[in-house]
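Data follows
____________
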Amino acid sequence: MIFEYAPPSPAHRGRWVWIALGVVLLALLAWGGWVGVRAIEAKGELDALVPAAVGVQDALKAGDIAEATDMADDFSAHAARASELSGDPLWRAAESLPALGPNLAAVRVASAQLDALSTEALQPVLGASGQLSSLLDSTTGSLDVVAMESLHSPLVRASEALDTAGSELGRLPLASVLTPIRAGVTRMQGHIEEARSITSDLADVTAVLPSMLGADAPRSILMVFQNNAELRTGGGITAAFAEVRADAGALSLVDQGSSREFPELDEPIMPLPQTLTALHGDVAGRWVQNISMSADFTVSADLASEWWNVRTGHRPDTVVSLDPVTLQSALAALGPVDVPGWGQLTADNAVHRLLVEPYMTVDDVAAQDTIFENAAASALAVLLSGSANPVELIASLEQPIEDGRISVWSAYPEEQTVLAAGPLAGQAARQEAAGEDAFAVYLNDTTGAKMDSYLDIAIASTVADCRPDGLRDVTVAVTLTNSAPADAATFLPPSMTGDGTYGVAPGSIGTYVAVSAPRESFPGPVTRDEGSSYSIQADADGRPVSQARLDLAPGQTNTLVFRFVAGSPGSIEPQILHTPTIGQVDVTAPIAGDCPALG
């Protein structure tokens, strides 16, 4: 039998079309339902990451590595599940859809990077943190430099993972995604950048710290203690010194000295940079108290080394500068410190006990210096005893480091190269790292005493678009207030007021204020509340610096306004840094400035 093909009837063809459409529709619904369900589940996993991440952070701050590890395991589980939910072929196929696709892609990439970070960054760093508790031998005060060297590799691995995550997220077309997803990815980018910076810095530190602590040969470390009650660019006058010997991680205090033990010189102890002499003359090289007048910590460290060589006959391998605010923060981890002949310093009272009380209650300058020396020695003794939790100690120093209160320099070029690129490189390096729109306000006391505990400081900035060439006009307004009592001249002792020795009336506060602007900026005039103000201009490695002076009687407030023109057209968002002071400086966000009236 021969079979002949008979074409289907129109009704039959229509039925098959509807069946095919139905199958496609069901497939699409199933596809959409599958992706939709997984999207809901992925959202739940991503939401669960937030408390886990906060838990890790809180546990680390508390020094509880075990709790941090548990929270990190929870974080990793949620991140892995979110990545799994958003990484299947159906999800990837849905990313080709016009409106929905970019949102799904953003969720997938964010989930994948969080999963990668949990294994490549979070877990290695926590593993490294777990070793911190065993780095310090509480019986000898020695640091395990071999274990410290082992921290370097996981920190480098974590830093590389954070770099990758930042790059992957940076490629997402965030303008095409929904606001909640865009906001979440943007927050994630901010956290990644912050973590990358910290992790990279720690990786650099672990690369050089073992050798600086005598892993290869004994090293000398000169600790320089600044007193912010008498301000200098880097923080305060150099009040005390302590030399620590580091030998294979074993630390010991070998020598101490106060500023009054150093001679006053007729000529600078070493050649000074032109920028420094243009602003302050040669005093930074003639009195040891002035070594932190320079914003460049390499200059301050060189000066400290030269002065120490005058006193001892040898130069240190490392110079570390810090202030009493740093000490007060560290006491949160170290615990109270008993200072012979003075009492106890705590995380609540150290600044007042060191920067105010000695000058109010002790008349003899030598006795005041002894208090400062004994405080430094006592704090170092507690630190070297190994009783502090290293994780808690590192956490306690986070804010002082951010404020620029701790600076470190090495005489070894390979170590200094690493330090110069990190957060411990000093004020000029902080301005460099803050970006091309950074301005720095530096303060130097001219009272010659300890009145800056009464100095209140506020800094504001404006940006105006007034010029036909597109260059922005920028102002930095520095408002100083002398909050001393009206009878300060008689109420306060001469050790605080200076008693007019350096030309500032007792009770008044004299201050040089300098503003360092971005490179290629053009400096303009400086005004004060009463009108124009005499100012000095200098160049610091391509950065224009303007400086003017204010003398304030008790209760008086005055504002210096520094004007600059940006070096290139376009928008500018001033970032303000400043000399580390005793109290908080009120820095307000930049606002739009007024253009001068025409005609």
In short: The chain has three domains: 10-212, 219-415, 434-592. The first strand starts at residue 219 and ends at 232. Confidence is low (pLDDT under 50) at residues 16-34. The two ends are 108 Å apart (CA to CA).
